[in-house]
Each structure stands twice: as C-alpha cells, then as structure tokens.
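Problem 12. The chain below contains 67 residues. Write out its predicted structure in token notation.
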Amino acid sequence: MKEQLIHIEGMSCEHCVMAVRKKLSALSGLEVQEVTIGSARVAYDEARVSPEHLRRAVEDAGYSIGR
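Solution.
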C-alpha cells in the first residue's frame, strides 16, 4: 500500500472534511487514514487506485487538489 498526503484546496469546515472523507472512502482499494481541513492522508493499492482516481474523488466532493 502506498501512503500519500493530499493537499486539498477550498475546504473550510467540518462539512468539507465529511464530504471529502465520504468520496475517498467510496474508492475500492483505498484506506482513509485522516482528513482535516486542507488535507487528507490515505493509503492505497496502486494496482487499484491511481492519482487520477484520487483527483476525481476530491473534485466530486467539490474541492481541488493543491500543488
């Protein structure tokens, strides 16, 4: 499992945290370790989850991945 810290732009409250956690948790092969305002720490199986999957899940929650 690969661990990654994702920087997320546009989050400002606990509702944002819950929305991102929900979308990331829906990805098969990914374990959400922590979501805070502005970031998420995840572990995932690279054979099942790609960086594109992570980006789409964050965008589906209404936010964008920071650089």
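Discussion. The mean pLDDT is 96. Students who got a different answer should revisit the alignment rule from Section 12.3.
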